[in-house]
């Protein structure tokens, strides 16, 4: 009962008075005993509602610590937890409801109206009593391969897919992360990542709770609030996307803070600008970039922060309990320096795509997950992600990997954010174009960027056009929307609206 489905109750037995969760927005603090009590209360609500093993419980809410009690209650009752992205449109939410078929929708006050319009039984998260009930509430019998949560992907290539994560998937990601990243009960993380996303749930939150540490939950990211929280709650390890790192660097408070308890800052989701590396190096704070996928943990690699500083953009070596390989187009293993598709294997992998057997069979073969990402490794065995397979640019018969170009350009001190795509070209088939958000007061000239690229890139990889924009379009899960960038590129070329410093 404890080890697979109800491990949070076991953790409450071991460290009942340890601080499990803190809510930056409300100031709430829960010990492990209190978290277990709230979990048991939700379990009782689900039992009273007649929910049976395998049924789905959807959630529509901003970040709040109650969501963890709901998640663990679903585990205890054998229900499948389905967090929904509150940024989605009504039609998109309706699709997820139709696809997943939840028996109950739990929501916060802000989303009560939207929840009521989705046509399924709904209840406020606050409707469950805060008082503790019997911590030995009967748990549903279960297996390691039973589904625990279903997280919907962003759907940039079509309808979003429900990624089914079993108890084995989630627990082994947590175990692997604890061991490979040396997490313990002394660790504390600040988490502003959305809790409808695997980065918010599984990257650090669940591993740290399994280890007995503390998870501090933020709602809407504010750089100064985040910096104060990092210091006030004595955090040790935290994950932010590059725009969050940059926003913190832009404040005076960042430069006034020493972050004395921080072991390491993590970054993921997009290439990180050189200014972030330089800032953390100057502060004496360790920093590293990572790679993750909803279908695989998300955690797969470990890199020493000193190596990360020397090899900007590297994600390191595979973690303790997973395997990595790179295959070429013919399915042969790639040698060091060669680019191929990244494949992952381990007990942390997802089980299947919900209601999508065809996609499942395409992605999972003989225990290996085909990520669709292109990667390489160097002679030291450290891995680098160079882009999505579907985003590879073929220009004049040469293969060009967008992330390789992005990693080059993000190293220029005038580049704050970067995205590289290929667009149709009569002469070359495709041409490389770059969208740049410049550092405030430091807009680089085209000549500077061309010279910078020439230092590390072959001439055919250098962008033919540089478009300077105020911001990059993002998808509903916070990733750069490259489909929208392609539309923008065509419009900008047609209308000849390039800003000064762009090349045609």
UniProtKB/TrEMBL annotation:
Residues 404-479 form the AMP-binding enzyme C-terminal domain. Signal peptide: none annotated. This is Long-chain-fatty-acid--CoA ligase. CDD domains: FACL_FadD13-like. InterPro entries: AMP-bd_C, AMP-bd_C_sf, AMP-binding_CS, AMP-dep_synth/lig_dom, ANL_N_sf. The keyword Ligase applies. It holds the Pfam family AMP-binding_C. Belongs to the ATP-dependent AMP-binding enzyme family.
